[in-house]
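Lecture notes, part 5. Sequence design as translation. It can be helpful to think of inverse folding as translation between two languages: the language of shapes and the language of residues. The source text, in structure tokens, appears below.
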């Protein structure tokens, strides 16, 4: 430690470390605890103090005020030291306050979402764009808040508002995505002690709920398929997206997150879509055969410089949103009351009606149980699945064209 001296701009400019020392402090004679720390080639103004009322029973703390490059003069630095020591005299603890300020900054919801995005990318989570889109949109109101201040009721309010609006699917998705995000905040970011959504699950369905779901879940007739297909205009992203779901039986999330690089055209005659394991609900890869009709649909999808998504939002280039409004508009135009999952049921029912065996039909949906995986790997199941997709695509093409002929014939 160097001797005390009155710090001046000239003293600071000449200050150097004594030979053989890696660190030293020049303490100011004007303000007790104020000094210039020398470490390597760096010079930093500091204040040393003991928290008020605790005397010598506690260790001395130090806080950094700034550097000669960021604080114009020693007089300015001395004023900052006075202010910090004034807080100590009033019973405060500047070092603790700064630590809390840094914690709050790191614990801001917006910053944590950025960190969560980086974590999902590092883990090669394919649907990260969709996940972050949902979280940022639903948590926008809380973006600049300290996540430790948010309680389970804050998240429950968002979920219940979606449920009251009749958006049960959106409510379930947010609950699932947010619970995973909060687990990251607890386990990896370590900014909360517990997960506010732990144990918060969708209420058990009542008998009425189950009956309603059973009534609503259905497969579309050929006539309804035609009406939805024609209403889903191929010159719009949403229209192409709906036609994709009709042809493949994919889940909404799988279609919305589909990236061009997932389409393997190594063999032009047998192009396939390879959905990675992290992308599919069952946690295993799923292969979809690209029929001629699906290939023609992909050819109508313009490349968006903002995104590699096959069906990006026209407004943002990211994953589509506003599902309920777009679907409601399509229901109104087509005259067919349906849900996205009904299109999946239609695909599965259609395969059975076309004579596709149960095992192949289940594989085509990605419902691969262990015994089906063995069949798939052992006896050329890939060709059987490709045939199933082509058969269904041909059926859709046939009924759509037959309706057109009937309309103009």
């Amino acid at each position: 430690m160097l001797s005390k001296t009155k710090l001046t701009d000239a003293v600071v400019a000449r200050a150097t470390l004594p030979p053989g020392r890696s660190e030293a402090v020049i303490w100011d004679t004007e303000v007790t605890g104020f000094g210039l720390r020398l470490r390597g080639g760096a010079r930093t103004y500091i204040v040393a103090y003991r928290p008020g009322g605790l005397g010598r029973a506690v260790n001395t703390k130090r806080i950094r005020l700034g550097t000669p490059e960021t604080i114009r003069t020693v007089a300015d630095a001395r004023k900052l030291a006075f202010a910090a020591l004034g807080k100590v005299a009033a019973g405060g603890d500047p070092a603790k306050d700064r630590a809390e300020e840094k914690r709050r900054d790191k614990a801001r919801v917006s910053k944590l979402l950025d960190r969560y995005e980086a974590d999902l990318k590092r883990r090669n989570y394919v649907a990260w764009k969709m996940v972050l889109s949902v979280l940022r949109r639903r948590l926008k109101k809380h973006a600049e808040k300290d996540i430790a201040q948010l309680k389970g009721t804050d998240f429950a309010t968002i979920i219940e508002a979606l449920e009251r609006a009749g958006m049960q699917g959106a409510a379930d998705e947010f609950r699932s995505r947010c619970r995973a995000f909060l687990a990251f905040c607890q386990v990896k970011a370590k900014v909360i002690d517990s997960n506010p959504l732990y144990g918060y699950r969708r209420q058990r369905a009542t008998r009425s709920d189950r009956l309603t779901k059973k009534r609503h879940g259905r497969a579309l007739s050929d006539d309804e398929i035609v009406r939805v297909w024609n209403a889903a205009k191929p010159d719009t992203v949403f229209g192409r997206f709906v036609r994709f779901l009709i042809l493949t039986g994919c889940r909404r999330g799988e279609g919305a997150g589909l990236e061009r690089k997932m389409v393997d055209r190594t063999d032009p005659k047998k192009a396939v879509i390879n959905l990675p394991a992290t992308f599919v609900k069952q946690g295993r890869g799923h292969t979809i055969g690209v029929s001629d009709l699906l290939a023609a649909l992909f050819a109508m999808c313009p490349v968006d410089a903002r995104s590699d998504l096959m069906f990006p939002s026209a407004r943002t280039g990211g994953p589509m949103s506003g599902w309920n409004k777009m679907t409601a508009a399509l229901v109104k135009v087509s005259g067919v009351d349906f849900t996205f999952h009904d299109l999946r049921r239609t695909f599965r029912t259609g395969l059975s009606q076309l004579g596709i065996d149960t095992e192949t039909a289940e594989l085509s949906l990605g419902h691969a149980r262990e015994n089906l995986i063995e069949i798939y790997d052992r006896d050329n199941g890939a060709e059987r699945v490709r045939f199933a997709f082509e058969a269904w695509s041909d059926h859709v093409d046939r009924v759509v064209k037959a309706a057109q002929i009937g309309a103009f014939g």
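The translated text above is only one of many valid answers, since several sequences can fold into similar shapes. Residues 298 and 310 are 8 Å apart (CA to CA).
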